[in-house]
Amino acid sequence: MPAAVEDPPGGEIPLLDLRSQHRQIQAEISAAIGPLIERQRFINGPEVALFESAMADYLGVEHAIGMSSGTDALLAVLMAIGIGSGDEVITTPFSFISTAEVILRLGARPVFADISGESYLIRPSAVRKLLSNRTRAIIPVHLYGKVCRMDELLDLSTERGIPIIEDCAQAMGARQNDRAAGSFGLAGTFSFFPSKNLGGWGDGGMVTTNDADLAHKLRCTREHGADDNMCYPFLGGNFRLDTIQAAVLNVKLGHLDEWLKARKTAARYYVQLMVEAGLAAGQNETRHPGHHLLPPPVWDERDHAFNLFVVQAERRDALKTHLASLGIGSAVYYTTPLHLQPCLSDMGYRPGDFPAAEEAARSVLALPLYPEIGRDQQKRVVEAIAEFYHRV
Questions:
Q1: 70 and 194 Cβ atoms separated by less than 8 Å
Q2: Rounded to whole angstroms, how far apart are CA atoms 214 and 6?
Q3: Are 148 and 95 in contact (CB under 8 A)?
Q4: Which residues contact 47 (CB under 8 A, 6 or more apart)?
Q5: Fold that domain 21-253 belongs to in CATH
Q6: Highest CATH level, class, for 256-390
Q7: CA 382 to CA 123: how far, in whole Å?
Q8: β pairing state of 179-180 and 293-294
Q9: Confidence check: pLDDT of 301 > 80
Q10: In the list 36, 175, 177, 182, which could disulfide-bond 168, CB 3.0-4.6 Å?
Q11: CA-to-CA distance for 63 and 363, rounded, in angstroms?
Q12: Which helix (H) or strand (E) holds 130?
């Protein structure tokens, strides 16, 4: 995700409105951080353990280990399972840079498998073709709030004995077959960047796992590799979750289900408006040239957490400019697939290697979506889109 989320000109309908959320819970937040400030214990305070326990219960896992960011959570897991030089890790080319960055930092090689053009999620059939004797892990990314096809990926994991590390940075609250994102693989990693469904007041992250040995090693890893006796059997990093972030997140976790419900309701309403405006096909309709948008399917909304509401749009860049001129925020996640990023140019990938990811990068657009968005605001967004496509 970007380093900051800015309001559009005029701030009329922002992509994300964290101020509205904060107004609802300001008193609770103040009550939670007041004692912390009085104690002046900002590292490894009791709020961290409380939040870890609450998250483990919420996600249905045995262990939840707070981390300093979603990126550090991914890095810590790969360090803990021994990923290093000469190893390969299969992942998606359509993700934030950190997914590949952490692999490269350890001297390993990211091997990309293309995505489904409609779900934006890694295709298990593409993963299977890339498995080799150098494959040490698979990192599926649950993008925009939807979980990858974990049953097929878990079959691959079992067949070949290759661990799955779920990148759940955008999937807090997402589920599949009554299981939470982050509970399928050997480990799941989460981000609490402010724009996420469960966002802190800064960076923060978490690793979830049902493996007690891995959980213990991760707790050492986040403390530079220190064990309980302050000896250092291996090198780790400074990956601790700040106590103040845990306090804020503890409060927000209590509201997460109601916020998720509001996100899903808003997503369903967006699709309804787009169909009524003739911009998109209905659930049982065939898309035709007069349909300018492909919204996410909402019939699986019970499982989709809608961290972002992303459409595929014709003339995407011009539409984005049009919306900005009307004070309507939007964003592109992601403009360039990982295999075409300059920092990965020495890996030998070329345009056309992953056509679905490249087409997604040309057409995806995230529209304003947050629990507090009003129906009148959503109508204005869709009216502005219809104006763009229907003008002569």
A1: no
A2: 38
A3: no
A4: 32, 36, 243, 244, 246, 247, 250
A5: Aspartate Aminotransferase; domain 2 (3.40.640)
A6: alpha beta
A7: 31
A8: unpaired
A9: no
A10: 182
A11: 39
A12: helix 124-130
In sequence order, which residues have a C-beta less than 8 Å from that of residue 320 and are 6 or more positions away?
330, 332, 365
- What stretch of H or E contains 124? helix 124-130
Number of residues that make up the chain: 392
Alpha-carbon distance 124 to 131, whole Å? 11
Q: Is the pLDDT of residue 347 over 90?
A: yes
DSSP bridge pairs for 112: 91
Cβ(372)–Cβ(20) below 8 Å: yes
Q: Looking at this protein, which amino acid is placed at residue 27?
A: A
Instruction: Point out the least confidently predicted range of 24-28, 148-152, 219-223, 282-286.
Output: 282-286
Q: Where are the domains of the chain?
A: 21-253, 256-390
Cβ neighbours around 300 below 10 Å, total: 12
Query: Could you tell me which residues are beta bridge partners of residue 188?
Result: 166, 208
Sequence-distant (≥ 6) Cβ neighbours of residue 135 within 8 angstroms: 88, 89, 90, 111, 160, 162
In this prediction the pTM is 0.94
- Give dist(CA 121, CA 131) in Å, integer: 18
